[in-house]
Amino acid sequence: MIDTFSATPSSLNLPQGRVGPIGDVTWLKWTFCRSEHTAMQMSLSRVQRNVTVCSGSIKKLEWIDSYNKGPIMPKRKAYIVEHLDEELEEWSSLEYKAIAEESHASGSDFWLTSVPQTLKLPEPLASTKGLQVHHQSVEEICSDRKDKVCLLDPSASEDLTPEDGDRFEVFLFGGILGADPPLDRTAILRNKGFEGRRLGKPQMTTDTAVRVTRTVVQDRVPLQEIPYVDWPEIKINKHESTEMPFRYVKDSGGQPIMPKGMVDLIKNDAERGFGDVLAE
What we know:
Elements: E1 2-3, E2 26-32, E3 36-41, E4 58-65, E5 78-83, H1 90-105, E6 109-113, H2 123-126, E7 131-133, H3 138-141, E8 149-152, H4 164-167, E9 170-175, H5 186-190, E10 195-197, H6 206-217, E11 228-230, E12 233-235, E13 241-243, E14 247-249, H7 262-268, H8 274-279
Parallel strand pairs: 5-6, 5-9, 6-7, 8-9, 8-10
Antiparallel strand pairs: 1-4, 2-3, 2-4, 11-14, 12-13
């Protein structure tokens, strides 16, 4: 649908040149006398005909409906976790929150896909900056650009390199990754034909896998130069400790980087046994 009209300022306040994929939206493409810009506005009604622009007058407005077609892929890096579970355990929620916060801080996107319509995210996660939740699968969202998607796959034949940051725009992870022993849930995505890269042999938690990938493709640090700690020991109390069966990235103090609240969660669940927590 194309409408031709003279625009006047209004409260919609759409900035020039903004592109952003967030759920089911209506995309606008407006043509200025001097240049073209694309923008997005959530829940924009077809009845509304006025937009605020920085300069120039609009001579043509083209509506592009993306409802049920999924978000338009971003130009900046996106990290996608395909949620492969009907539920969301607390430890997984903490990991997703950490991924969203770190992605937002690094200027990249974090998408949680295949989230069941019936799954209500806990408020601390749902309100996290940088989190984008989609009920569609990554296969639906990325159907027109599979060649730009890199699946982080322990069974891949090649390691991830900084150069992969130039080749791929989206980095895909199968959740739940952090299980011991590994459940190979990534096989579900592998069978869909995405090109794979590996992060090494040791099993990583989901947030660690995203953290390592971002360090390689955005910070251009080779895998082998990232400081790791394997199977760190977490003190429960004076007499007890538990060993985490995963590889983590070290912080500046030599400690494993974990999501906020994870150590407390581990301690609280120590009586039940860590293996039982991961098996849920």
